[in-house]
Specification:
The protein contains six helices and ten strands, in the order E-H-E-H-E-H-E-H-E-E-E-H-E-E-E-H. It is α/β, with parallel strands linked by helices.
């Protein structure tokens, strides 16, 4: 199971979380987010092991700005959390970046929107639909995942907490690739509780 820990921005905390060896680490470049990584330390990122893929999270940003940010921080991929079109996903993937496209889920119908993005993304990310973009700390009904019949592997997001390990391990969908962890493991926005995460990951990786 792939592990993505998102919303990182504090140098010391980034280094501590890296010791947990997640597959992906997410850095949010959306100014309205309390986890906005505007002052991200490049040296800290450069010190991360190559096994941890650095993912920039963007919301309705233009392609030029995304590419500029990706180059500045030497990111491995992008997560598009807005209403970005298929063409942008294809351009970024063609440029050699990992592409994760987020889809807000409120009902089974929402999975149908993913069909147009097949072949344009490495992963889909299913998050709880809210009025804002991400970071709600709320779950959608995971039983609806059975309605997803696409070919692209997906990451599960939205309010995943320490007591969800058992339920996550019961998900048997053949395209379920991993989980995205954020707000429920925080001391404050942008700072993760390392011990809390370590214990959870131990349960997940049993």
């Amino acid at each position: 199971m792939k592990i993505k820990i998102c919303g990182m921005k504090i140098p010391k905390n980034i280094s501590e979380i890296a010791n947990l060896q997640p597959d992906f680490m997410g850095f949010i470049f959306y100014p309205k987010s309390p986890r906005f990584a505007y002052y991200l330390d490049i040296a800290t990122l450069n010190a991360l092991p190559k096994s941890i893929k650095k993912i920039g999270v963007f919301v309705n940003e233009n392609l030029e700005n995304i590419l500029t940010t990706v180059a500045k921080y030497d990111l491995d991929g992008v997560q598009l959390h807005g209403t970005e079109l298929v063409e942008m996903c294809k351009e970024l993937r063609k440029a050699g970046y990992i592409v994760i496209k987020a889809f807000p889920i409120a009902e089974a119908y929402n999975f149908k929107v993913t069909k147009a993005y097949e072949g344009a993304c490495d992963y889909f990310l299913f998050d709880t639909k809210t009025d804002a973009y991400g970071g709600s700390g709320l779950k959608f009904n995971w039983g609806m995942l059975d309605e997803y019949v696409g070919e692209t592997p997906f990451l599960l997001s939205g309010g995943i907490a320490a007591d969800d390990a058992e339920a996550i391990l019961k998900i048997e969908h053949q395209k379920f690739a991993g989980i995205d962890l954020n707000s429920m493991f925080e001391v404050k926005p942008g700072e993760k509780n390392v011990d809390f995460l370590r214990g959870f990951l131990k349960e997940i990786k049993k």
